[in-house]
Amino acid sequence: MSGDSIPQSPAGAAAQAGHDARPAAPGRDPLWRMIALARPRSSRFVLGVVLGALATGSGVALLGVAAWLIARAAEHPPITALSIAVVATRALGISRGVTRYLERLVTHDAAFRTLADVRVRVYQRLARTEPVRRFRSGDLVSRLVSDTDATQDLLVRGLTPPLAAVLTGGSAVVFCTVLLVPGGLALGAGLVLAGLAVPLFAAALGRRPGQRQAAARGELATALVDTLYGAPDLVAYGAMDRAVARVNDADEELTRIARRDAAVLGFGAGAVSLITGLTVWGTLLLGVAAVEGGSFSAVSLAVLVLTALAAFEIVAPLPAVAARLGSIRAGGERLFGILDTPPEVAPPPEPGRRLPSAEGSGGTDGSDGSDSGGAVEGLRVRSLSVRYGPQEPWALKGVDLGVAPGSTVAVVGPSGAGKSTLAAVLLRFRDPDDGTVELDGADITRYDADEVRGAVTGVPQDPHIFASTVRENLRLAAPASDDDRLWEALERVRLAGDVRAMPRGLDTEVGSHGMRLSGGMRQRLALARALLAAPRVLVLDEPTAHLDPDTRDAVTDDLLTAAEGYSTLLITHDLAGLERVDTVYVVAEGEVVQVGTHEELADQDGWYARALRV
User: Can you tell which superkingdom this protein's organism belongs to (predicted)?
Assistant: First the structure.
């Protein structure tokens, strides 16, 4: 069957469209998309802007009233003439602290709740499993931590302060203009320069370093994780020095970018200070000229100058925020790179449906049993075709195979034959582009992926062992299991003796990725965990791929013994122990080229017989 001749079903076409899509090109700036994440709490952020404006306005008014009070007191008026200003000074001092506290409370609460929602969305997306494999582990950690936290930085520092500055700065300019028009215009010009021109220039200067900073942070995290977790192999192959040099290079690059970022921040702070000084001097000179002309009082001059000085407190943080926008935007792009990653498994047309019962009497979703065909059929793969892109060769082409209830079937073939792709489809990590996979007569693409994985589970070639105890690793599959059931599963995979010899038995810590266990023990522990889930079909995908020959033969024998009574599909390139399986399928270049028992295939001319002789 040629690749071009394979038609695609509607479900397969939809899945293929998901495979071929690229992460996110919604046409919107990541900054606006990050702000949109806060839409459910927009009222809180509006309240935060109002409180922030009141806080900065109280600070400006406090200095203005204090200036009037001091200048007026110098004229020795009756004390009653100063009482209102005295009370106002106290009130503004209190309101400044209270409103600032409330503004931080409201905006940080809203930002943290939004950040929690974003993290939940990211974890929900990653919980579908498929996207995890598209990112390197260190880079994924950086996306989960630093790039996700960029949302908080934008909402707390990049949203509330600029809006509050517009409200308070506009009010200050209006007030000063009422006092003295030239002074108010000078203040307005200074605030526009310090609060708009300088931040825009700082944003332009910080855009490239910010983009490079996010990527450099991810590279450093990747280099560190690769070095730490790959240390034994790196030492064994004499590559540790190169790995450490890579970490140092990534750290130096991040340091250079940080220095550039610090220079931009220093430029912003210095420019604002310069503009502040020039504006205050300008308003002072204009005010002095007005006083000498007799159109302006000395008390009003003090109020004008100190109000102008206090007004720049409003815009002082803005250049630093603007300089970080490049880094925040790059973090947003990396964040949405996860959220926008298209799924490899399309959602079922009717979410929530339950698979038909194992007895073939129909599903528990109220169906009439038509999905099951009225009889237990086991696992059946019909004309399965899969490829990873429209221009890519077919990884699987028209594959047909079956696993009858209680039987053991092996799929063998050379590396790159499509065996792991078959396992990915069976475990619902990919959708078929054409053909079907049926469990007891039910098309598995019509059911939720987790529902299928509860019935079809297995042991991958590199099973994940969590950094916890033996007990907790086992109970992931069956949380309600008591110790007797755990020991029964360990006995079945011939691991109970090793666990009993451990210092704390079931409570022994296995280390990160199970590093305190041997390769064979990790495989047995993963199989025991799979058996506790009581699956209908057990898929063993290259379970001995990383083991030495002696250990490999023993583990294969133990796995097949433990899997007796289950419908088992063993995917492997190793032919040891296959005389114990019922049927062997040989796959080459994505197609089934031979089918038979071990003895039958050993007597036929083909890949299987040649592999036996090697």
Answer: Bacteria
